[in-house]
Amino acid sequence: MADERELIERVARAIPSIQRGKEQKQGIALGIGDDAAVIRSARKRDWVVTVDAFVEDVHFLRDKHPADAVGYKALARATSDLAAMGARPDFFLLSLALPSDCTRTWLNLFAKGMGRAARKLGLVLVGGDTTRSASISISVTVIGHAQRFGTKAPVVSRSGARAGALLYVSGPLGRAQLGLELVLQDYANNRKLQKLLAPHLYPAIRLQLGEWLASRGIASAMIDISDGLSTDLARLCSASRVGARIYAERIPVVQIPSPVAGLLGRRAADPLSMALHGGDDYELLFAVPKKLERKLAGAPDFQNLKCVGEIEPTMGVRLIEPDGQVRHLLAKGWDSFRRA
Amino acid sequence: MADERELIERVARAIPSIQRGKEQKQGIALGIGDDAAVIRSARKRDWVVTVDAFVEDVHFLRDKHPADAVGYKALARATSDLAAMGARPDFFLLSLALPSDCTRTWLNLFAKGMGRAARKLGLVLVGGDTTRSASISISVTVIGHAQRFGTKAPVVSRSGARAGALLYVSGPLGRAQLGLELVLQDYANNRKLQKLLAPHLYPAIRLQLGEWLASRGIASAMIDISDGLSTDLARLCSASRVGARIYAERIPVVQIPSPVAGLLGRRAADPLSMALHGGDDYELLFAVPKKLERKLAGAPDFQNLKCVGEIEPTMGVRLIEPDGQVRHLLAKGWDSFRRA
Question: pLDDT tens, B182-222?
């Protein structure tokens, strides 16, 4: 039987990490293998910190989701919170509770996927904790930074949206929901469907765009769409004490090829509904004051940005249907407790 | 049914915390309620970061451990890692996965206990994540600091012990194991036994001693005894590439009153064995170079410090029996995977 130490060493080998005694990366004074990690403070740098739980049977299914995708996504989704602040990721800690029968093959694949995400996102593992448990429960703490100008670090909160600002999303919505439906139908390993599966299994995180928007002061409020546009827009509006209107026709939806719709049968949802309420897309939703809109032309992946509506003074979110009808949009995105 | 937002607000009310828009505590630029927390860097300050998992049926039993003790201990044990570095705790993040039927009374008591620990330990909640799950799984990230002198922050790692140094423990060992045995026998709520139960349910964390030893450069290596003296001494020796000898007669053991031994019956273990291999004591184990020993007299709680042995050049840990016999001490403390 593996012991905890052996598990930690195996994970740390598969993931870019800083071992005790090998602290070369700037900013780390003490890495994995001691009671805690030590991070050097740096001039004019604020630390941005977030934690994210990723739990079996709630966020993923052990028999349907590939272990490497679980590792990749657990780290990617936590890092998306930093993208939404405009911060740059540096370090992470992994808290991993897993059943004994997951400590070999499953853990190796998990660590491989997480290692791939860490390299892609520029993250280094500096510490963690491993324990046995009845089901898999992952918690990832990500630490990043924002460079301070004067006394203020250019992070973008959820609360700065003002009436009149334009609402943008960074890409098509509902793609992760489509991928999830395919996984639930046991197509996770179907090679022909990888392109449609990827947004759900290995989500892209909009780090460059987030940092670009923050450092230039172009976005006045920002959030990542992790639980669905309807829910995350409501959160942004509530934090900013404003409302919003969005136009159904402007929302970039996923295109479902008809053979795929056939595979899904009755599970194939309406693309607009998937875009409004589907979770896990990790696109950014941000407000841009009108006078700054023209500056967006220089944004990374500018061609994917889409203006979906605008901020209004009246609380609540309104959806404008193609025929001009206005309907109140309820937050019907993902909430693990409400679905329970 | 409660939704995630309501849960977070309820927890944040019970625990000293920094809400978005109310960031008064020095060092915090953005608190709970956004995508991530923002911590101001400070001159000459290194951040010390640790994460700790606390899982139902592995670390505690829902039907035997009071919920407020689960909350208290989850935070206390994570903070003990900072004590072992000599760092001072500042902020924490809570990742909480729990079943729907734990979201009312259980969660309220849990938050109350965690709030009490936070006040005691000087910690403020700055962020977290909550999700539903089949069983309770808690992960706590604690962020503290060490003040830098010159280019070096006075943290104490596990790896600085050299042959000839004296080995000290900060207090009696095996007390948490005794408390655990009482809890397993359903005495958790017995008012007469609270003093014996407390070390297991509400462990004291040696923050002042740890910081005192670190800031004065008196300890050359340090670890908290979370998994038993035999296991944690082996870790310290392995990290320092040294060995150690400890004397059975010098190890401060727990005194079991005979009526209590009677209650436990066959579960009453030998006090030395409980001290060597029992987990969860959170006393500090540290090495002190001989020439610095006299300085210890000024330490907080000096009267509880006990020299149990010394560091030797030969790898391995040796226990000297009262009759002078030397036996090799195996690391038989707590390992959740080995017990699986």
Answer: 999 999 999 999 999 999 999 999 999 999 999 999 999 99
Contact B174, B264 (CB under 8 A): no
- Alpha carbon of B56: minimum distance to chain A alpha carbons (Å): 8
Please indicate if any CB of chain B lies within 8 Å of the CB of A255. Answer: no
ipTM for the assembly: 0.91
Residue with tokens 């989500």: A203
Tell me which residue of A98, A39, A124, A51 sits closest to B140, measured CA to CA. Answer: A51
Q: Do A50 and B158 touch (CB under 8 A)?
A: no
Q: Which residues of B touch A336 (CB under 8 A)?
A: 4, 131-132
- The residues with which A309 forms a beta bridge, in sequence order, are A167, A246
Q: What whole-number percentage of chain B has pLDDT above 90?
A: 76
Task: Give chain A's domains with CATH numbers.
Answer: 4-147 (3.30.1330.10), 166-328 (3.90.650.10)
Q: B-contacting residues of A 227-246, CB under 8 Å?
A: 239
User: B53 with A97: CB under 8 angstroms?
Assistant: yes
Closest listed residue to residue A75, CA positions, set A143, A154, A22: A143
Q: Which residue of A has its CA nearest to B32?
A: A50
Is this model's pTM higher than 0.90 or not? yes
Among A102-116, A255-269, A289-303, B21-35, the minimum mean pLDDT is found in: B21-35
Distance CA A54, CA A67 (A): 13
pLDDT per position as a tens digit, A94-122: 999 999 999 999 999 999 999 999 999 99
| C-beta of residue B133 within 8 angstroms of C-beta of residue B98 | yes
Q: CB-based contact (8 Å) between B46 and chain A?
A: yes
- Chain B interface includes A29 (CB < 8 A): yes
Q: Which of A91, A56, A57, A97 is nearest to A75 (CA)?
A: A91
pLDDT of B17 > 60? The answer is yes
Chain A contacts of B41, Cβ < 8 Å? 41-47
- The count of C-alpha atoms lying within 13 angstroms of the C-alpha of A321, restricted to the half-sphere facing its C-beta, is 7
Q: Which residues of A touch B87 (CB under 8 A)?
A: 36
